[in-house]
Each structure stands twice: as C-alpha cells, then as structure tokens.
Design goal:
The protein has one domain: Maf protein (Alpha-Beta Complex). A hairpin with a 4-residue loop joins strand 6 and strand 7. The chain is built from five helices and seven strands, in the order E-H-E-H-E-H-E-E-E-E-H-H. It is of the alpha/beta class.
C-alpha cells in the first residue's frame, strides 16, 4: 500500500482523508512527530495559497516524501464569506488565541442570530496542495453547499459540522457517518480529485 503523509494533527481531518484513501490502496499517515516540527504561519490570503504554504514547508522537513496539506473552512454568504480562511480561529483574540470548535460555533450563531432562514446559505471549501521537497506539484479544490442551522445537531464530525445542514440528505455533516460524509463533503471531493491525479500520474 502506497503512503502519503499529511501535514495535520487534526484527528478529524486524518479520519476524513483515511476514509477516502483506503478504497484506493493508498495509506494516509500523519507526519511523524508533527507537533515537534517548526510551525508554518497560515497568513496567505486564500485557501489554496495557505495549503501550498503548508505543503511546501513540511515537505522540506521530510525530504523525498510526498506531503499533502489542506486548508478548509466555512463561507457564509450573508457574512460576505466569513469566517472563510479564519474558520479555525474565528472566535480567537490576542488574549485567547486558540479558539475551540464550540467557541467558533457559538460566535457564528451570534453573528447570524437575527438572520432569517432564507439568508443562512453557506458552503464548505477545501483546498488541497501536494508538495515534495518544497515544491508544489498540484492543487485541488472541493466545495459543499448547505445552510447554517440555529442550533447544533449530531455528534460526529468536527468544526462547524453540527451546524452545517446538507439538504440532499436532510442531515447536518455531524449526523453523517464517515463514509457518508466522504461522499458529499468538500474534503471528500478535493481528495478524490487528488487521488485521481495521484493514481494517473507518474509522481509516485
């Protein structure tokens, strides 16, 4: 089974990627001792450029290995695309730099408290970059359209999943099994594009 390293310590992301990869004879693993490596500052202006920055940075630290990195988040139309690239730190502040999922969700609900249901449209976006030895080889993008609920539902997933209602299945992403989520999510779409490229190319 071929191995691809992914630059994240987020258990939810690892689980999402592994669910998609296992069907194709590809093994996804976190970078060994990831938390001990020098961090990269995610200060680029788009999901794609942040993903590229991470993939290039960490691929320099594990020479010769193919390294995948993603940047993803939630864009809400009525908030002009916020929280967007700041999704993971939406509720953060200088005094409290590490916001939890619950804190980010609570802030989003406060921002949308007076917004009618018809104006709560949103989309998840995921950009994936793959790099080797500090050079980006390709990038891929996936999206999933939905709406933000007024209260969380479901115990699966992570991030904004409990608030993100996906109408075709009449469920939030947090109510989906990992397999169901893989089929319809932004991360699943981007990763399937990556896998197709990986399996068809001579990059291996």
């Amino acid at each position: 089974m071929e191995r691809i390293l992914i630059a994240t310590s987020n258990v939810g992301k690892l689980r999402d990627f592994a669910a998609a990869a296992s069907r194709c004879g590809v093994k996804i693993e976190g970078i060994p001792d990831f938390k001990s490596l020098p961090e990269v500052v995610e200060d680029a202006p788009t999901f794609e450029t942040n993903a590229q920055k991470k993939a290039e940075h960490y691929s320099r630290l594990v020479r010769g290995e193919l390294v995948l990195a993603d940047d993803s988040g939630l864009e809400v139309d009525v908030l002009h695309g916020a929280p967007g690239i700041y999704s993971a730190r939406y509720a953060a502040s200088p005094e409290h730099p590490n916001a939890s999922d619950a804190e980010n969700n609570a802030k989003l609900l406060r921002e949308l408290e007076s917004v009618g249901d018809e104006w709560r449209r949103a989309r998840f976006v995921c950009a994936i970059a793959v790099a080797r030895d500090g050079k980006t080889e390709a990038t891929f993008r996936g999206t999933a359209a939905g709406a933000v609920l007024r209260e969380p539902r479901g115990a699966n997933g992570f991030g904004y999943d409990p608030l993100f209602f996906y109408a075709p299945l009449n469920k939030t992403f947090a109510e989906l099994t990992p397999e169901e989520k893989c089929e319809v999510s932004h991360r699943g779409e981007a990763f399937r594009k990556f896998l197709q490229w990986f399996l068809d190319s001579d990059i291996r």
